[in-house]
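Hi there. Long-time user, first ticket. I'm pasting a complex I've been working with (about 270 residues overall). I'd like to know whether the download I got is complete or cut off, because the file seemed smaller than I expected. Thanks.
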Amino acid sequence: MVPLSWYMMLSIAVFAIGVFGFLSRRNIIIMFMSIELMLNAVNINLISLSHYLQDLRGQILAFFVIAVAAAEAAIGLAIVIALFRNKATAHVDEVKEMQG
Amino acid sequence: MIQPLLFGYFAFAIVVLSLLVITRKNPVHSVLWMLLLFFHIASIYLFLNAEFMAAIQVIVYAGGILVLFLFVVLLMNIRQELLINKFIGAWPTGLTFAVGLLVVVIMSIRSFIAAPPGNYSIDLIKQETHTKALGKLLYTEFLYPFEIASLILLVAIVGAIVLAKRRLKS
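Hi, the file is complete. Here it is re-exported in full:
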């Protein structure tokens, strides 16, 4: 039986990689994928805790996380398409007209 | 005996694939590595006796969200993107932040104290099947959050159409 802390370490490793990708890449698609990585790390943690604590609520929460991630991906990619239509770039540093 | 070995393989593959996802220059390669990553995460869920979540992971993430990503990547012109640097100049700052987060959380895992186990033991879930147990809980105790989730998805559909549609010139 694999101990719970291994799953937690895997989860935080994936989360940290997502944080690093979000902070250091400027391609908007890669930034969105880093957010998906972080959400997946949280899901791994929730489902492993749910298994080891013998309570299904963690999996319900992971279910809602997946639903919100789907909504977030749809809205975010719609924004990317609108951005690409106006600016023809996926590099977020090029988009600086919206600072007020 | 075989279980730690398999877990080791999947954990190692997940970490390596996540690194590949965020370091590729071409977003198409990133999306394809992420597809492989999601299948590995689904197998981790199978370890945890969560076969419904594994199916959802493959269907929603690999089948839905990644296809959406792939469509958007193919819609845009990435030829100019390939010419500029992958990382921003201040990438060591991001690395320091991520490593600091990793170290702090790993140190705090040691002081984790598990709560007393709940009602859904592994034998009960196996006897009732996982999907049925999850569905019963979702449609009784968590009915209102479930309805709110459907509203969020409706907002996402409407919002995506409004944002992505071409403005008509009147």
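A couple of notes from our side: Chain A has a mean pLDDT of 89. Chain A touches chain B through 73 residues (CB under 8 Å).
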